Amino acid sequence: MMKLFDVYPLYPIELVKAQGITLWDKKGQAYTDLYGGHAVISIGHSHPYYVAKLTEQLQNIGFYSNSVIIPGQEELAEKLGKLSGYPDYQLFLTNSGAESNENALKLASFHTGRKKVVAFKNAFHGRTAGAVAVTDNPNIVAPINDTSHVSFLPFNQIEGLEEGITEETAAVIVEGIQGVGGIQVAGTDFLKALRKRCDETGAQLILDSVQCGYGRSGKFFSHQYAGIQPDMMTTAKGMGNGFPMGGVLIAPHFKASYGLLGTTFGGNHMACAAGNAVLDVIKEENLIENAAKIGQYLMDQLSLFASVKEVRGKGLMIGIEFEQAVGPIRDTLLFDHHIFCGYAGKHTLRLLPSLAIDQKVADQFLESLTQVLKA
Fold first, then answer.
1. pLDDT per position as a tens digit, 93-128
2. Which residues, other chains included, contact 302 with Cβ-Cβ below 8 Å and sequence gap of 6+?
3. Interatomic CA distance for residues 115 and 108, integer angstroms
4. Sequence-ordered strand ranges (E) for 121-258
5. Is the model's pTM score more than 0.85?
């Protein structure tokens, strides 16, 4: 019998149902989801509007390729442009965050005629060839993945940018908030310095917003706190609320041509139905404002915990750093208190809940964490 390629450590939990912020396993045990499957669940599980829109689309047409008009693509571009504050940008639709980053890097190279890329320490941009080359983790870079064109600079450090970013640099790629790197927020001065140096050299600035985008930070994109405009932004995760999709927002100075980029499944009918439903719910339910409000409440309360070393993040992308290893804390929250959380490194608990959580859920988590830390 064929077996699965064993690359994922698994919890002994089989989930069979989800609604809002609640998950149920096959034994009927309920869980509170404060992780959203790596920041994917943006509007809540099985949101009725989302389910209705995908059901309606599937009953009409589920898929055809990008060789025909897909009206949902133009609808998505218009809605995303308005809600994100980038109506003059262009949209290329993909299937994932890694694919979004691949295409952004490729487009920067096409545009500049250059090859070199600058990334940052502790970055994570994906596992495909181009994306993994700019990811700062040698354990997931295979010998076939060429990294000779990539240099890594210290994250959030302005000193060294002038020497590191030159007229040979095609692209600078940076996360607005490092996720896997420990919920490290890119500072305003740092992002402004990156924008300035890219302007000076012609390098294209790519903001990887795969995890920190789509309203999670309390603004549509976390870099908007710094008041800069990147040349490209990459998205995925919360974009489809569980339906696989991603995108690249592309500044007006990039010129498209037939065959320049391509994908079979990117921007398919079902993905667009999911993406448009997500944007509708985010707008109608004021979820970006809610993320800012509940996120700030959580961070304020967490900072009062004596055993918490540091609280980092923006909105509902929160890292809680402890002196001790966080594994036992996370496991106790899951198995004793039935709360899903994540981690980023050995000492940082990571919260990436639906943008629709309320203060009651936040308080329940704070009470559970209090009990775990007292034990």
1. 999 999 999 999 999 999 999 999 999 999 999 999
2. 308, 311, 318, 320, 366, 369
3. 9
4. 150-153, 169-175, 177-178, 184-185, 204-208, 232-235, 246-250
5. yes
